[in-house]
Design goal:
6 helices, globular, seven-stranded mixed sheet, about 200 residues, alpha+beta
Amino acid sequence: MDDITITPGEAAGTIRRVLRSETHLIESHLLRLEGDARRRRFGHDVSDHFIHTYALHGADLGNLTFGYFCDGEIRAIAELRQSGRAFGHTAEVAFSVERPYSGKGIGTQLMGRIIRAARNRGLQHLLLVCLRDNVKMQAIARHYGADLKIEDGSIVAAIIPKHADYESYASEFLDDRMVFMQAAFDWQTRLARMN
């Protein structure tokens, strides 16, 4: 996987699964997206109320969200949302990265985590829908071998994950063992900033 490029003096972040108790951090991240970034994420303009309701479902059964955490806050997310019924074979993938963190390889790493999670859950088909002007997202999808097509004015990227193997299971298991410890550190960081 590609490394995240951090400029000197910039805080390094971590990528991990977002816990159900952290959906408010998803909401805060999505609300920080500027108008154009918010439109690219959802494919159209959305209200703050829509984002509040949307974020509440980030940890629903069948959904999985990974976040890029920096100084205790989520600055980028990748979501795996199952289409139709949970535990099917198809899921939709969505990403958002705040402007100061764009262009650093974070989206590419998040996509790698999502594909690994999809493999380990037996998903056979991932769909990523983005606007035609979202060239960064299209480049990330191509990096992972996606087939891109134009449908109804949008770009639809289809990704077929490989079958799970020992390496994919082991790497996710090791990452998951650290999630609660990293979440505790992120919580302490946020608490310290408030005081």
